[in-house]
Design a protein that fits this description.
200 residues, alpha+beta, 7-stranded antiparallel sheet, 3-stranded antiparallel sheet, 5 helices, 18% helix, binds flavin mononucleotide
């Protein structure tokens, strides 16, 4: 089967891309607005973009209403965000935080997670997260104005907090993170069948 993407409906493109590009890491992004109201939401259009500078890429898609998602509005207003990694234990809380709640709703309360004070940004992190990456906005690239388009946030990592017991023998215990990945639809994964390959 072959597809000329120009002949597909937007929803068909979405389903093909999200089913094919998986598992995707999840950035559970915490921000706050200029009044200090915290916000928390997950984003799976996410990855490491470069190391020097240390950049993460997160794509915030447009809402049908045209109004910026709270995460994007807060990042634009404050220039700051925290990327929290979602462990298996936090999957349900992460899912609770993804609803389209009004800006004044603090999703930390809604998801039942606690705030951790950040070192280099004002936005709090998720205290229970196994890894927290405090970031400053580096750049924001508009990818498309309409539905399905969005804004690619390039976030520079300023400070990394590794959870208790996850720093072993001078390295991050990556398996110990039990990081949840995003599959298509309502699917999630854990890297429980991980294997290694030596590079040529
Ligand atoms: C696992 C998961 C991954 C998601 N990934 C994205 C994404 O990459 N980009 C996006 O715009 N929305 C994504 N969403 C939806 C947002 O989390 C949702 O729109 C949320 O309400 C945004 O919250 P905010 O308005 O507080 O920023 C995802 C939702 C879930 C549950």
């Amino acid at each position: 089967m072959d597809f000329d993407v120009r002949e597909l409906e937007r929803d068909g493109v979405y389903r093909l891309l999200t089913a094919g590009v998986q598992p995707r890491p999840i950035a559970w992004v915490s921000t706050q607005d200029l009044l200090g109201v915290a916000n928390l939401a997950p984003f799976s259009f996410f990855n490491v973009a470069s190391v020097a500078p240390p950049l993460l890429a997160i794509s915030v898609l447009n809402q049908p209403s045209g109004r910026d998602k709270d995460t994007l509005a807060n990042i634009r207003a404050t220039g700051e965000l925290v990327v929290n990694i979602v462990s298996a234990e936090l999957a349900e809380a992460m899912n609770l935080s993804c609803g389209a709640y009004p800006a004044e709703v603090d999703e930390f309360d809604l998801a039942g997670v606690s705030k951790a004070r950040s070192r280099q940004v004002k936005a709090p992190g998720v205290a229970e997260a196994p890894l927290r990456l405090e970031c400053a906005l580096h750049d924001c690239l508009t990818l498309g104005a309409g539905p399905g388009g969005g804004n690619l946030v390039l976030a520079e990592v300023k400070h990394v907090h590794v959870g208790d017991g996850l720093w072993r023998e001078e390295r991050l215990d990556a398996a110990g993170l039990r990081a949840v990945g995003k599959l298509d639809g309502e699917g999630y994964s854990l890297a429980e069948l991980a294997f290694s390959l030596r590079r040529p």
